[in-house]
């Protein structure tokens, strides 16, 4: 019999209060190695706040966040990349005047370990690390099929192309878990299909687990192994995409009415 798989990410009853308002209320969820898990809910349900708690942008008011069995709730957001957690943001957070390559290299900063003097001399360790970073970036550029964009500034790119660059920057830190915050928002159908394919390949080829917030239900249903549903900061349902789609609480949260009777 196989030993029980330890979750890569385990969130235990996290809550977040802003003054008297409880934005997230006792939310628990898990992401196992190699899974694609979605966190969905109506606008204002607390999804992004939950993501900000998981990625260290905000400290939880209560609860635990375990990554590979270790509580990471007290760490700074800048520490999470080093743990193996990459993230994209709902609003693009790229350097618009930098090139695609320069933006991707930002994702490698956690691997640069040398002194100021060494960097000035650009010899030995800095040079080796720079070469390794460039090799990794070229692999990501090829994977995301953006070879022709590599030397263009981000401000020149279409929105869907910028989303690929942000996804590439998150991959550059070589995460074990990738947090995707509405990665297909604002995209046309073809762009969504491309990103969906990349997400599956990220899981299947690289073994990276994915936790995503997503409003596009087609993407959620097509990609997810499991789905969690938030409403007013509380977890109201969880299960496979099919189970969640038939849950009357989920239908009521989205449609404002009970599920129709057969």
Account of the protein in words:
The chain is α/β, with parallel strands linked by helices and 262 residues long. The chain has a single domain, classed as P-loop containing nucleotide triphosphate hydrolases (Rossmann fold, 3-Layer(aba) Sandwich), CATH 3.40.50.300. The protein is 37% helix and 23% strand. It has helices at 47-54, 80-83, 100-106, 116-121, 125-143, 159-172, 189-206, 217-223, 241-245, 248-255, and strands spanning 9-18, 21-31, 36-40, 62-67, 70-71, 85-87, 177-181, 209-213, 226-231, 234-239. A six-stranded mixed beta sheet has the order 6-7-8-3-9-10, sandwiched between helices. A four-stranded antiparallel beta sheet has the order 2-1-4-5, covered by helices on one side. Helix 7 links the parallel strand 7 and strand 8. The protein is globular and about 50 Å long. It starts with 8 loop residues before the first strand and ends in a 7-residue tail after the last helix. Mean pLDDT is 86; it is low at 114-121 and 258-262.
Q: What is the strand arrangement across the widest sheet?
A: 6-7-8-3-9-10
Strand fraction:
15-25%
Describe the global form: globular
Number of helices: 10
What count of structural domains? 1
What kind of sheet is the major sheet?
Answer: 6 strands, mixed
CATH class: Alpha Beta
Q: Quick one: CATH superfamily?
A: P-loop containing nucleotide triphosphate hydrolases
Find the count of extended strands (DSSP E, 2+ residues): 10
Using only CA atoms, what is the Rg? 20 Å
Report low-confidence residues grouped into runs of 5 or more. Answer: 114-121, 258-262
Q: Tell me which oligomeric state these chains represent.
A: single chain
- Looking at the structure, the CATH topology is Rossmann fold
The succession of helices and strands, N to C, reads EEEHEEHEHHHHEHEHEEHH
């Amino acid at each position: 019999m196989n030993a029980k798989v330890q979750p890569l990410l385990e969130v235990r009853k996290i809550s977040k209060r802003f003054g008297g308002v409880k934005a997230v209320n006792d939310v628990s969820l898990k992401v196992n190695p190699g899974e694609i898990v979605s966190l969905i809910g109506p606008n204002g349900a607390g999804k992004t706040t939950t993501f900000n708690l998981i990625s260290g942008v905000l400290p939880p008011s209560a609860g635990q966040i375990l990554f590979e069995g270790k509580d990471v709730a007290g760490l700074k957001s800048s520490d999470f990349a080093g743990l193996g957690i990459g993230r994209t943001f709902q609003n693009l957070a790229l350097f618009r005047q930098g090139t695609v390559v320069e933006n991707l290299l930002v994702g490698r900063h956690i691997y640069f370990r040398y002194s100021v003097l060494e960097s000035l001399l650009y010899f030995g360790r800095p040079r080796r690390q720079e070469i390794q970073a460039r090799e990794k970036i070229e692999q990501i550029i090829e994977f995301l099929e953006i070879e022709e964009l590599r030397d263009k500034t981000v401000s020149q790119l279409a929105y869907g192309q910028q989303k690929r660059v942000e996804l590439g920057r998150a991959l550059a830190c070589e995460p074990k878990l990738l947090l995707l915050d509405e990665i297909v928002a604002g995209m046309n159908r073809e762009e969504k299909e491309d990103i969906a394919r990349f997400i599956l390949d990220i899981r299947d080829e690289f073994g990276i687990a994915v936790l995503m917030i997503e409003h596009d239900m087609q993407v959620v249903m097509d990609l997810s192994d499991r789905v969690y549903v938030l409403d007013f900061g509380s977890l109201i349902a969880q299960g496979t995409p099919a189970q969640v789609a038939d849950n009357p609480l989920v239908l009521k949260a989205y449609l404002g009415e009970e599920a129709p009777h057969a």
